[in-house]
Amino acid sequence: MLKRQRGLATVVLFVILAVSSPYLSAQEFSERKQVAVFRLSYYGEPRDPVPQSQTYIRIGNIFAYSRTVESETTEIFQQAVGAIDEQIRSVFINMGRFDVIGLTQRMQESNVNAFVSALRSYREDTLEIPEAVLVGEQAFTEQDFERLVGGFVLVIPSVSFYNLQRRDREQDYQATIETSFTFVNVEDFSTIGQFFVETSGTDDNAVNAMRRAVNGIPGQLEFRVRSMPIFQIRTGVLEIAGRSVIMEFGQNMGLQRGDEYAVVQRRVTSTGHTTQDETGLLVVEEVREEFSIGR
Fold first, then answer.
1. Conformational region of residue 29, where left means phi above 0, alpha means psi within -120 to 50, and beta covers everything else
2. How many alpha carbons lie under 13 Å from residue 31 in its C-beta half-sphere?
3. Domain count, the chain
4. pLDDT (0 to 100) of residue 282
5. Same domain as 9, residue 46
6. What angle do CA 275, 277, 280 make, to 5 degrees?
7. What's the pLDDT at 25?
8. Spans of the chain below 50 pLDDT
9. Which domain range does residue 278 map to?
10. How far is it, in rounded angstroms, from Cα 2 to Cα 217?
11. Is residue 26 domain-shared with residue 56, that is, in the same domain?
């Protein structure tokens, strides 16, 4: 099998000599995953009040920011955050192996467990939903719950910290943002990953400095997502012709020209244990819609 190098996504392939090999059925193949991406949550985020005429239940906590942020800094962040939600969704779309839906709600990191618990209760028919469920200040309808319990991986981005400082010596501004990303597998309601991305930006204009820090989030997000085990691709070699290897999957699963993959072969030891050995390296030279060619 093949493992992608240089800290990017891992692709697992069993090396076989022909499609007719009896080991073909033993190969592991990835499937496209459905991801539902929340909008970015942050201190000072816009809120849509629930109509007073609606009946609702409230779970989770109302936003509580652990550090005091100056109102001017909050206003600058609001100006700079721009189209970050579209940029975050684009990371998953452009990777090519996800079916992506964008949610209109935001989710605070502190309310993730409460929300997951509510989803579990809804699936088990122990939660009766009135017109809306408030998670913090975000409203979810029964239709929203029905949509999300269908097997998505939830992607929950939340800004845990941001700050802006004037650097007197350089006569410019430095912005710093720390963003958490939490991934929840709705199939078993498990948290399958969480990491923090810290980005910064400098400019002689305060808004531009913050915008540079915001625009650094998608690039770091892609790098980290590609290294997550649940998003690593498992597939098989279709054919070996000389030094060329035809690999299952191409543009349909986000493989890219220039990707490097370690060849990993599975074997059974004399004691009956299964192990994996790296036996070579392949570089993807050509990518078609449903297969790729490497050497």
1. beta
2. 5
3. 2
4. 81
5. no
6. 160
7. 43
8. 6-26, 65-66
9. 2-30+232-294
10. 29
11. no
pLDDT digits (tens, 9 = 90+) for 43-77: 878 766 655 656 667 776 665 544 555 678 889 99
Q: Mark whether 38 and 163 lie in a shared domain.
A: yes
Residue at a domain's end among 201, 227, 253: 227
Distance CA 191, CA 184 (A): 4
Six token digits for residue 159: 């800004």
Cα 55 from Cα 83, distance rounded (Å): 32
User: What's the predicted TM-score (pTM) here?
Assistant: 0.75
Which residue reads 């942050």 in tokens? 42
Angle, alpha carbons 7-8-13 (nearest 5°): 110
Is 144 found in the same domain as 104?
A: yes
- Pair 236, 121 in one domain: no
Q: In which region does residue 171 sit, left (phi positive, over 0), alpha (psi from -120 to 50) or beta (all else)?
A: left
- Among the candidates 184, 204, 227, a domain finishes at 227
DSSP-assigned states of every residue in 65-129: -SS---HHHHHHHHHHHTTHHHHHHHHHHHHSSEEEEEEEEE--GGGHHHHHHHHHHHHTT----
What are the DSSP calls for 7-55, one per residue?
A: TS--EEEE--S-TT-TTGGG------EEEEEEEPB-TT----PPPTTS-
